[in-house]
């Protein structure tokens, strides 16, 4: 080792004069602390004390102080006062809100509150109770306040019209009571206090700016608080303005025309009600005798809206009647013309119900029915009965009776149970009673020259040689007698009518005047009938049997139908043998027990009705069925002529779209025509539709072949199908072998032989079926086959004068040295054959072929034909 290697290197020492990083963190910490201290002092705001009577609803650290919904402070602590009579809170007011503090600053606790005047403090339900602040206007160094129990009246600080109302007492009014104009709230009471002499109350009222123009120097105010009730023999009259005024009090006012608008703090008297305010148009209403109004405050209504009230009822100047004074809303002045009618609405109670039932509580009232005319202030009121009596269009009927039978004025006049009028007057003569009936104008057409009037009410009945009849009316008519009538004869109203005691006696009186129309009816055998047996329609006797004798193999019965009922006999009338008993009961019409007549029980009777689609004659004579059921189920008889019955038998059905509409009844050979006569009946419901000329009937039989199966629904029993016609009624029809062909283009194809073509073979264009073969027959000279075919309407444009047709049925097999070639059409054409067609590519196109045109049918196609792609426009 050398000397140089043993010598150590001397280290270099440097002194760092920079500040340590630890001191930097210390300085930052001091800075943040200073900033936080500054922020805390700056945001601490102003500490104040607020005294409350109790601490209910206040929580330290949670209850806030708010101004117009904005949080401006918070409660820090809650303390007891030194005298223990109250509490005070230490609260911080945020710096930006310190300017709200002043000598007259007000505080109060806001919490949810419900009262008759309404609900307040709903926002406290969500955020909790809070302390509201009203800013002060006078600077002060005092930082101690006493909270108010209620929010201060701040109406003076709000915009709008401020007015003063003076009243003898406060009544039901309070702060928050609303002001109404035409029942619309437009302001409120915000303060009230006694006058300096303590004799009256002054209410401070604020009217919203948009409604301030309604108040002028002529405006009057009146109290509408609570309700007023007048109780008397005429009922209870209850008056209140609206629910709000009923609960919390209210004031209403009017707005008469004036050029001088109200100014702030104008003073007005407050009247106790509208009558004291003496507002409204004064009118006089003459009241009729028996008006029934005893309440001087009865309302006057127009379409359910109260427009005024009566204010007084007194004797007329001539002392001969009563005159009511009324006050009408000035806005309704347009209703008051010399033709306007005032009607007294009275309570009417009867077994039919209670009319104007509210009158029992509120009393009778008057309704207004305006008409154009000259302005007027004097009117005459009428009852509804008086109006009907004075109506010139109503029918006034005079009726004479032997006895009043409990009838008095207002007795109802009914027709078929519906009220059409009433008795307006009852007058007694020496030997009779004269009744004046008033029939409403819309029902007067029911009164005719031969109308018969009779009493309804109570249970009535009659028993004699013609039968037993008991009539039990509806319950309401048993205790409330009325007059009813029939409507028969000409439109002319007779001078006088007779009132019968019962409906039965009225009917008997009518029958004594009737004549008869005779009809002859034939039956296979004579039922249990005799001369005098009744003839009935809907269980009502309208005639009788006048003769019974034996005709040519049939019973011949002659009946007489009363002339009044001869119109019931129509082309659809059906007669049947009738006897027995029937009962009918309902709540509205009561109970009717009707045996028809004694003779219908002992010796039978005949009934009839109009039933469409039933065979009702034998030739030109009427036919008698053994019963109604037999008649309803028989229907209409028709006859078919056919070459063969082909599987039909008695009972085979006649069908339309799969629904049975009739059936075969008889099959008889017709030797002279080498055919068959088939008798059938169409059910009554369908006879009118199918028993008409042009109806098409055909025999449907099952068809099974290589090409498929058809009409399998006729596999067990063939049936007759039908398509309805639109001609007149007919009884004879031809029974066809094929279904009626639909419209289309009919053409004829001529071929050397039939090949595999048969009826139904399709005509194909580009392998798509466009028609089918209808018929195949030999030509006139037997030198060719004529094939009749039909082209569907939608494809008739494909058949041109030069269209080429060829047989595409089965297989085309060619065998040569090079092999075999097999050509086929569609699967359908292999099974059931087919005729193909093509249109030559020639321009211009030939015309569309006419109906009945003949074409040549080639045995096979030229290969060129199948390549044609001629464009053919559709129709």
TrEMBL record:
<feature type="domain" description="Mce/MlaD">
    <location>
        <begin position="160"/>
        <end position="220"/>
    </location>
</feature>
<dbReference type="GO" id="GO:0005886">
    <property type="term" value="C:plasma membrane"/>
</dbReference>
<keyword id="KW-1003">Cell membrane</keyword>
<keyword id="KW-0812">Transmembrane</keyword>
<feature type="domain" description="Mce/MlaD">
    <location>
        <begin position="637"/>
        <end position="725"/>
    </location>
</feature>
<feature type="domain" description="Mce/MlaD">
    <location>
        <begin position="280"/>
        <end position="349"/>
    </location>
</feature>
<feature type="domain" description="Mce/MlaD">
    <location>
        <begin position="517"/>
        <end position="593"/>
    </location>
</feature>
<keyword id="KW-0997">Cell inner membrane</keyword>
<protein>
    <submittedName>
        <fullName>Paraquat-inducible protein B</fullName>
    </submittedName>
</protein>
<dbReference type="InterPro" id="IPR051800">
    <property type="entry name" value="PqiA-PqiB_transport"/>
</dbReference>
<feature type="transmembrane region" description="Helical">
    <location>
        <begin position="21"/>
        <end position="38"/>
    </location>
</feature>
<dbReference type="InterPro" id="IPR003399">
    <property type="entry name" value="Mce/MlaD"/>
</dbReference>
<feature type="domain" description="Mce/MlaD">
    <location>
        <begin position="45"/>
        <end position="136"/>
    </location>
</feature>
<keyword id="KW-0472">Membrane</keyword>
<dbReference type="Pfam" id="PF02470">
    <property type="entry name" value="MlaD"/>
</dbReference>
<feature type="domain" description="Mce/MlaD">
    <location>
        <begin position="745"/>
        <end position="825"/>
    </location>
</feature>
<keyword id="KW-1133">Transmembrane helix</keyword>
<feature type="domain" description="Mce/MlaD">
    <location>
        <begin position="396"/>
        <end position="454"/>
    </location>
</feature>
């Amino acid at each position: 080792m050398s000397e140089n290697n043993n010598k150590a290197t001397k280290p270099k020492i440097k002194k760092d004069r920079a500040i340590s990083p630890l001191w930097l963190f210390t300085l930052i910490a001091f800075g943040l602390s200073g900033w936080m201290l500054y922020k805390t002092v700056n945001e601490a705001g102003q500490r104040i004390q607020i005294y409350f009577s109790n601490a209910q609803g206040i929580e330290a650290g949670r209850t806030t102080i708010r101004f117009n919904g904005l949080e401006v402070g918070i409660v820090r602590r809650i303390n007891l006062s030194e005298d223990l009579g109250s509490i005070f809170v230490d609260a911080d007011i945020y710096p930006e809100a310190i300017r709200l503090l002043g000598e007259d600053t007000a505080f109060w606790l806001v919490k949810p509150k419900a009262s008759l005047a309404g609900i307040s403090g709903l926002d406290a339900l969500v955020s909790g109770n809070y302390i509201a602040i009203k800013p002060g206007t006078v600077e002060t160094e005092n930082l101690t306040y006493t909270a108010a129990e209620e929010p201060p009246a701040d109406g003076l600080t709000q915009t709008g019209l401020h007015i003063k109302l003076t009243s003898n007492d406060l009544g039901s009014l309070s702060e928050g009571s609303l002001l109404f104009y035409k029942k619309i709230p437009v302001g409120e009471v915000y303060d009230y206090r006694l006058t300096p002499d303590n004799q009256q109350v002054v209410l401070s009222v604020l009217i919203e700016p948009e409604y301030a123009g309604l108040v002028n120097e002529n405006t009057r105010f009146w109290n509408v608080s609570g309700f007023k009730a007048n109780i008397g023999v005429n009922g209870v009259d209850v008056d209140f303005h609206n629910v709000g005024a009923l609960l919390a009090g209210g004031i209403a006012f009017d707005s008469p025309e004036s050029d001088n608008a109200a100014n702030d703090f104008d003073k007005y008297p407050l009247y106790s009600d509208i009558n004291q305010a003496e507002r409204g148009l004064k009118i006089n209403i003459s009241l009729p005798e028996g008006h029934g109004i005893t309440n001087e405050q009865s309302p006057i209504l127009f379409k359910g809206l109260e427009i005024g009230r009566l204010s007084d009822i007194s004797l007329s100047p001539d002392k001969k009647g009563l005159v009511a004074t009324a006050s009408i809303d000035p806005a309704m002045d347009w209703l008051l013309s010399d033709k306007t009618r005032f009607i007294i609405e009275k309570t009417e109670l009867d077994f039919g119900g209670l009319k104007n039932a509210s009158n029992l509580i509120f009393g009778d009232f008057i309704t207004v029915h305006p008409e154009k005319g000259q302005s007027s202030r004097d009117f005459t009121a009428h009852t509804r009965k008086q109006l009907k009596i004075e109506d010139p269009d109503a029918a006034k009927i005079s009726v004479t009776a032997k006895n009043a039978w409990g009838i008095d004025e207002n007795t109802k006049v009914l027709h078929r149970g519906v009220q059409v009028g009433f008795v307006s007057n009852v007058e007694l003569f020496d030997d009779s009673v004269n009744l004046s009936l008033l029939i409403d104008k819309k029902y007067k057409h029911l009164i005719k020259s031969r109308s018969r009037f009779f009493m309804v009410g109570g249970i009535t009945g009659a028993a004699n040689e013609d039968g037993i009849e008991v009539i039990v009316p509806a319950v309401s008519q048993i205790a409330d007698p009325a007059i009813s009538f029939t409507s028969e004869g000409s439109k002319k109203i007779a001078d006088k009518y007779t009132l019968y005691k019962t409906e039965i006696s009225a009917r008997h009186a009518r029958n004594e005047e009737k004549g008869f129309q005779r009809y002859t009816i034939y039956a296979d055998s004579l039922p249990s009938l005799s001369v005098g047996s009744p003839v009935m329609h809907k269980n009502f006797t309208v005639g009788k049997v006048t003769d019974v004798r034996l005709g040519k193999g049939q019973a011949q019965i002659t009946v007489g139908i009363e002339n009044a009922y001869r119109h019931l006999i129509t082309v659809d009338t059906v007669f049947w043998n009738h006897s027995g008993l029937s009962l009918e009961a309902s709540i509205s019409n009561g109970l009717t027990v009707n045996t028809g007549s004694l003779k219908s029980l002992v010796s039978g009777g005949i009934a009839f009705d109009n039933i469409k689609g039933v065979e009702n004659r034998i030739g030109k004579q009427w036919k008698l069925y053994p019963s109604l059921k037999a008649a309803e189920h028989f229907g209409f008889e028709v006859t078919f002529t056919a070459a063969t019955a082909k599987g039909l038998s008695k009972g085979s059905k006649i069908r339309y779209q799969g629904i049975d509409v009739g059936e075969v009844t008889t099959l008889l050979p017709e030797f002279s025509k080498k055919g068959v006569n088939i008798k059938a009946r169409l059910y009554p419901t369908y006879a009118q539709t199918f028993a008409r000329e042009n109806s098409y009937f055909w025999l449907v039989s099952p068809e099974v072949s290589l090409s498929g199966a058809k009409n399998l629904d006729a596999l067990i029993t063939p049936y007759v199908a039908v398509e309805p016609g639109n001609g007149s009624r007919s009884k004879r029809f031809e029974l066809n072998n094929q279904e009626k062909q639909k419209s289309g283009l009919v053409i004829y194809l001529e071929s050397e032989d039939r090949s595999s073509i048969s009826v139904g073979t399709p005509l194909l264009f580009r392998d798509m079926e466009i028609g089918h073969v209808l018929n195949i027959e030999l030509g006139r000279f037997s030198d060719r086959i004529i094939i009749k075919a039909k082209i569907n309407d939608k494809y008739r444009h494909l058949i041109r004068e030069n269209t080429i047709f060829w047989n595409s049925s089965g297989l085309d097999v060619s065998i040569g040295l090079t092999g075999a070639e097999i050509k086929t059409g569609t699967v359908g054409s292999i099974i059931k054959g087919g005729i193909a067609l093509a249109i030559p590519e020639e321009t211009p196109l030939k015309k569309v072929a006419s109906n009945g045109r003949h074409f040549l049918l080639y045995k096979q196609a030229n290969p060129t034909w199948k390549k044609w792609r001629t464009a053919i426009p559709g129709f």
